[in-house]
Amino acid sequence: MSHNTFGHLFRVTTWGESHGAAIGCVVDGMPPNIRFTVAEIQAELDRRRPGQSRYTTQRQELDQVRVLSGVMPGETEGDYVSTGTPIALEIQNTDQRSKDYSDIAQRYRPGHADMTYDVKYGIRDHRGGGRSSARETAMRVAAGALARKVVPGLRVRGALVAIGATWVDRSRWDWDEVPRNPFFCPDAETATRWAEELDAVRKSGSSIGAVVEIVAEGVPAGLGAPIYGKLDADIASGLMSINAVKGVEIGEGFAAAALSGEENADEMRPGPDGRPQFLSNHAGGILGGISTGQAVVARFAVKPTSSILTPRRSVDAGGNAVDVMTKGRHDPCVGIRAVPVGEAMVACAIADHYLRDRGQVGAVRA
Amino acid sequence: MSHNTFGHLFRVTTWGESHGAAIGCVVDGMPPNIRFTVAEIQAELDRRRPGQSRYTTQRQELDQVRVLSGVMPGETEGDYVSTGTPIALEIQNTDQRSKDYSDIAQRYRPGHADMTYDVKYGIRDHRGGGRSSARETAMRVAAGALARKVVPGLRVRGALVAIGATWVDRSRWDWDEVPRNPFFCPDAETATRWAEELDAVRKSGSSIGAVVEIVAEGVPAGLGAPIYGKLDADIASGLMSINAVKGVEIGEGFAAAALSGEENADEMRPGPDGRPQFLSNHAGGILGGISTGQAVVARFAVKPTSSILTPRRSVDAGGNAVDVMTKGRHDPCVGIRAVPVGEAMVACAIADHYLRDRGQVGAVRA
Amino acid sequence: MSHNTFGHLFRVTTWGESHGAAIGCVVDGMPPNIRFTVAEIQAELDRRRPGQSRYTTQRQELDQVRVLSGVMPGETEGDYVSTGTPIALEIQNTDQRSKDYSDIAQRYRPGHADMTYDVKYGIRDHRGGGRSSARETAMRVAAGALARKVVPGLRVRGALVAIGATWVDRSRWDWDEVPRNPFFCPDAETATRWAEELDAVRKSGSSIGAVVEIVAEGVPAGLGAPIYGKLDADIASGLMSINAVKGVEIGEGFAAAALSGEENADEMRPGPDGRPQFLSNHAGGILGGISTGQAVVARFAVKPTSSILTPRRSVDAGGNAVDVMTKGRHDPCVGIRAVPVGEAMVACAIADHYLRDRGQVGAVRA
Amino acid sequence: MSHNTFGHLFRVTTWGESHGAAIGCVVDGMPPNIRFTVAEIQAELDRRRPGQSRYTTQRQELDQVRVLSGVMPGETEGDYVSTGTPIALEIQNTDQRSKDYSDIAQRYRPGHADMTYDVKYGIRDHRGGGRSSARETAMRVAAGALARKVVPGLRVRGALVAIGATWVDRSRWDWDEVPRNPFFCPDAETATRWAEELDAVRKSGSSIGAVVEIVAEGVPAGLGAPIYGKLDADIASGLMSINAVKGVEIGEGFAAAALSGEENADEMRPGPDGRPQFLSNHAGGILGGISTGQAVVARFAVKPTSSILTPRRSVDAGGNAVDVMTKGRHDPCVGIRAVPVGEAMVACAIADHYLRDRGQVGAVRA
């Protein structure tokens, strides 16, 4: 809802800096009597974890999550049942080479939040980006693993659909392909091409942007709270809050601007079960801020990270002109690891709205 | 923050349906001792008001706003000074031809919120779209007029940058041109072309999408509350909550995905006053969710309205196949009137963050 | 939740000053498909309305409430069905003798909020107390009338249990007596005694304090959100926010401090239906912040109003010593009219927690 | 603001159960650049810590707090400077004799939250009371230590003013006496008497209630957000949310009910500095929900714990009649350890309102 908390009834509060002792989150509002395992959370974290290929930062974090509260132990170790009280999750930070950053303590990296944090707070944890580091998103992924459990039948999947100007070919879209390549790419041919292109980017010390698509299936019709808590507005807020995201769209998104009303309207016919069935999904599963029962489709654009080896003109905290080059370990395409993060934010927004309609307790009583 | 309220410390709660007795809003958190006139609010409302050209709905609403609370009268009639207590604004609904809608009471218009409201609430005010009508946005505009007063030196302007596939020519951008044509177009030549294109759309009973750009100047550096209350996340939420909006972007937006880190980074040099000065604004004035002091630039895509004269396949509330054609008075391009609404949402988000940093009382004491 | 809004899912936002054009509220979160009549709201307002006996202020307000949004008309005039969208209620202010207050515009009445509003906001609507007037509580009562409809079987009643040092005799408690006397007194004999005592207070231009008791029956077991949204914490917040209230207690309240664990514990035995049945209700129907299913019992103390005819030493806005005497029309015992207000706050808190558990939509689907 | 979070801009979210791996809290909204030491937090925790005298539970918890985020290290170990990002505090649970509770897993202790948690959530962590244990209040005390740092010059102190029917003699009130006895008693003679009385209670396996008084000095005039975020309403909510609290009052509190307007009004005269000076403080430092600049005075009643050795009639989870006796280590008077908890809640409420007025950043910029 605000500051370091996302959600209204399914509330995720994250804390921690890139190079502090630990990072963590509190999930407040998890319905009671929901079974989950620490392995399920870990599996999601492992998808986001750095150091898994040469296309992501070489920082090695085991990202071993612990469940500290809000549960009763299940039958085997690592099995839990939620009790309805806040669930605290925590990951110790282990691989922190703070010295990598010492030379940028007083320098503002262009395109980074260095200057704005200093202006706002008058103090900044410069080590690894501090609070503005993408490391915070690990806890979103952990919380998202719980959110996925809240709505029965919910399935939230994501894929990278563009790196730079190279888009996937939707005619070859195959969800099964996504975990098979290091890009979350649903199209094997495009993945091969991306590998070549990213190698060039990496070797030149540069970086490149990307576009991520999230598809949520099994979203019950009726979720979303008009006017300012529309499901799409909350998804937009959640996705835009991810590091480096500069654009968010639902369904046709910006392409809808060029369509006519005839083209864009999703017609309906009675379905086999007598309920309204849509003949298309330009709307991305949301009308008037409320889910239609179709798949919710969201995309977001991730800018190229400014942590590059090419020196850029900047200033330091004292107001002097300096040139800045980032030597730390970084991702040539931060958009890749944003895929599980985007899934998590969409899952959290949907879980939150599910509880707004059904209540924390009502959700498991129906 | 939720449901029918936007904002955290500058909180706007709107109420009312298209064809109810009135619509209104409560602005809670307005700092005390700020002078404003009802004419200033009315001027903003008049920019959004329907019936002003043949390109917007012919519904005639005077949209005469009244200030019911939260103020002491100033020296002349219609002058006010805020007292720090909630300001209630209200507009009577006067021109309601409910009969226009009687034939769609039981039919779901494709692309409209008819079906989703019914699924969610089990009841729906079908007259003019009820709560899902764009009429609600009048109160956003009214609240935005107050938000503009909160931050000294803030200037929020908007323009339509695309209708359908026709974009403005940025080399001809002229803010002075915006109020001179019925499209909020900053480019006279494009405005002429749009006039022709929209005439064709209107005559065929069709509709077309659009893209709006909002530019906020005078935004102090340092506004924005990481992690989940980032200024861009709140702007995204506010803009996405506007009727028919399907995409939101900040600065380079989706185009950033195709850029390299070198291209996208905004370099800095010490400015004449010794403070950091940016050499470009790809970021759209926001880094790490915090304003940089540059202009905040946001764009959003508005889909074509589904209220068209061409019959579309649909179902009715009883589950039967029907064809739906909307005969009411509607805008061929709802994106036009979204310009002042977008300005208002950006102004409200900025005012809210200004107060989060400085406090309701501190904002006027500094 | 904050400032001028009470509640989390059943959210009541009030606005308006004693001598402005109108007062009103927005009830956001009312479940859909709940039938109510304007007469039901009016009936509650009439119980709080001033000018009904010589023991309350002679200000004559018809307090005629209007329903402006959030409803579809029912079968007869004044009948409504909620649609799930915000319900706006409004009362025009009609009898405003602002001149009565002109001599206290610059003087701080001891015991009033005059000085604190000036210190906080640097401006104050002095007419009739402005926003700090008890007139605001009319909208709480109106909202409470809707809250009562949210929880099936809920019955919230209140009574005055003490004026000054004179307490009702609980052995004579008769709810049917409450509407028969001008004090909401459940004990006819005490009502007679209060009439005499209050006549003396009124004639001397003085005022006296009171204690109100609210009893809510039909509260489902399980309502209340540990830790900081406990049902008793929210009731305490709601009651303490009523003008002139200085103390709140639940069940045994302060008397519990003098009890032993044996005396205070409410023992249980299996009830006729097999469910736990309490043998006493020292807890006032709440354990660990969660309702037990017994009657929720709350009491609050109302201080004597400081609007008295005896001059009191004070200062003016310029810092000069002055003597202040309030000549306006006031209640000798403001606690009397606080009874329906207390009922409303308890009803709102219970409705809010009912929705937190079951959701806005789930509440009417079970 | 809700559920497991207290506060609006100074937000404290606590998590953890009595017998889980750890307990903790996240303090979101701490202004940047505030210096504090872990020793300062520890000192407050040590005042609340159990096992320090024979009058409190013999459970031995070192309650060693760690600071995990939101800070930059200061010059010496354990010194910190806040950065404006969330501060996570954590305490490992070390001394958990869960077996003590095994026999009450299925039995509802009268006066405890056992039954209500089961009814609400359908599951309950019975070990040591789980989430409903007073152990959670350790994190309130830790957060309160930070809250005390937010408002310059703020001093919040508490004292026990009654155990059972034995009240302190206010004519002997000496704040210096409070830390010298195991009761936080400001009156040495009463402390001696309480020692005798409590010995008897303890030996009989019984328990007794208490009343706590909190006095906050150095509260700036003007804090408090009418109407539903009044300073006294938020203090009432915070204090009522403490385990076993059944009543809260401000200033004269319930005694005000028996006073006349003349007696209760706090008269004013110009002070030496020309500003209004109160001649008394019946109001407890709050008028109209806004602080007057005088000391804020709050009291709360703590019921006797129901964990007693005398068997009480009850039921078990299966609905059978059982007798329950609590054999665990418990406090004969839980009100004693509530003193630092009450201080913490008042400090948090004041810090929150300080930030609402001045903003998170503005608070340290003035």
Mean pLDDT of chain A: 92
Percent range of helical residues of chain A: 10-25%
Largest protein interface? A-B, 110 and 109 residues
Flag low-confidence runs of chain A. Answer: none
**Distance between the ends of chain A:** 26 Å
Helix and strand string of chain A, N-terminal first?
EEEEHEEEEHHEEHEHEHEEEEEEEH
Quaternary structure: homotetramer
Keywords (chains A, B, C, D): Amino-acid biosynthesis, Aromatic amino acid biosynthesis, FAD, Flavoprotein, FMN, Lyase, NADP
Function (chains A, B, C, D): This reaction introduces a second double bond into the aromatic ring system.
Subunit structure (chains A, B, C, D): Homotetramer.
Cofactor (chains A, B, C, D): FMNH2
Condensed summary:
Chain A is an alpha+beta fold.
Descriptive account of the structure:
- Four copies of one chain form a homotetramer.
- By secondary structure, chain A is an alpha+beta fold.
- Chain A has seven helices and 19 strands.
- Chain A has helices at residues 38-48, 114-121, 137-150, 188-203, 231-240, 261-264, 338-358, and strands spanning 5-6, 11-16, 22-28, 35-37, 65-67, 71-73, 79-82, 87-92, 155-163, 166-167, 210-217, 245-250, 268-270, 276-278, 286-287, 290-291, 296-302, 312-315, 321-324.
- Chain A has a five-stranded antiparallel β-sheet with strand order 1-2-3-8-5, with helices on one face. A five-stranded antiparallel β-sheet of chain A has the order 10-9-11-17-12.
- In chain A, a hairpin with a 5-residue loop joins strand 13 (268-270) and strand 14.
- In chain A, helix 3 (137-150) packs across helix 7 and helix 5 (231-240) packs antiparallel against helix 7.
- The longest helix of chain A is centred in the C-terminal third of the chain and has 21 residues, at 338-358.
- Chain A is globular.
- The mean pLDDT of chain A is 92.
